[in-house]
Design goal:
With 176 residues, the chain is an alpha/beta fold. It has nine helices and seven strands; from the N terminus they run E-H-H-E-H-E-H-E-H-H-H-E-E-H-H-E.
């Protein structure tokens, strides 16, 4: 999906100039348009000039984001909230490290941290990786990058480091 971004409204303050730019992006095969500083109450005016082009809203961190129902009614098909997400992360990190500085310990529930870690791990395929790591391996069959493990041992490399490396890069073969 190609989302064309324009600051024509911000620069020119003209809905007509903005519509001209939007039509040019649409002619160049943009799938959707992101008009910076386009407020929900201005969408109808732009929609009258470009009725069939999907609109995306880049939500500014300087303003309170409108409710999704209002955005949908205004004709937006996508809303992006990048700074809101980063602000939430920064707020959580600040709270965590402030707690450590002020009390000398982290104010986190270990069960919640474990749950969140597992959720993230599962999101990126952690269950499959944990299952692979739990399988017993016979070092005779273990190969890393095509070379038998015995070759790595002869070179003085630690077996566990090689196994860890092999599993992380998903180049581990030969485990039952």
């Amino acid at each position: 999906m190609i989302i064309a971004r324009t600051d024509a409204l911000r620069v020119t303050k003209s809905m007509e100039e903005t519509a001209i730019r939007c039509r040019a992006y649409n002619a160049a095969s943009a799938d959707a348009l992101m008009v910076l500083d386009l407020a929900p109450e201005q969408v109808a005016g732009l929609r009258a000039q470009i009725p069939d082009i999907p609109l995306a809203l880049f939500v500014s961190p300087a303003t309170q984001p409108p409710p999704l129902a209002q955005l949908d009614a205004a004709g937006f098909k996508l809303a992006l909230y990048p700074f809101n997400t980063m602000a939430a992360v920064a707020e959580s990190v600040t709270r965590l490290w402030t707690s450590l500085r002020e009390t000398g310990s982290l104010d986190q529930d270990p069960a919640r941290v474990a749950h969140l870690r597992n959720s993230v791990q599962d999101l990126i395929g952690g269950a499959e990786r944990r299952a692979a790591a739990a399988r017993p391996c016979d070092h005779k069959w273990l190969r890393y990058g095509g070379a038998p493990l015995r070759q790595f041992r002869r070179q003085g490399l630690d077996r566990h480091a090689v196994v860890l490396c092999a599993r992380r890069s998903e180049r581990l073969v030969g485990c039952a």
